[in-house]
Amino acid sequence: MDQSMDMVRVKDSDCEKIERIGRDILDSCEFRRIIGQRHHIFSTVGYHSVHVAFMMLFFARIFRLSEIDAVRGSLWHDVGIYDRDSFSGSRDTAHSHPIRSLESAEKSGTINRIQADMIANHMWPVTRKRPGTREGFMITIADKCCAVTEFLRLHNDRVERVLKDIADEVD
To answer: Among 17-21, 36-40, 120-124, which stretch is predicted with the lowest mean pLDDT?
Structure first.
């Protein structure tokens, strides 16, 4: 079997994992309100969050991290950016949205210590508090890598498939 077919299968499998592991998050009011919120100029917060989940699944395979924590922490990490106008600027956004994201995730009652660390500290080193887990450190990398590719308009069609599935359910 050629490598391109293997990659397609891995991407499809990751898409299914994100939908299965994160179904309650994807269906939540908190996530649905970020789907269309503009982010990184050419993207949305919803797109970015799913994109980070894909990258974290890749890291989970390489570094033997929990796929559940990778997906759930990623989907929750930016839900605090539901209203850009409520922040006074980019510095305030960087410092405040992880707190708001963690509060939303904690209200769900479904996160653990690792996911909380990922959400609270994903803006390091912009924020001073350093992640305390491997997953928390890896999401800082995934978050920045995804932001750059989104800014360059290098989009992932699998991310759009996950978001389309959510939009189809709302209609």
So the answer is: 36-40
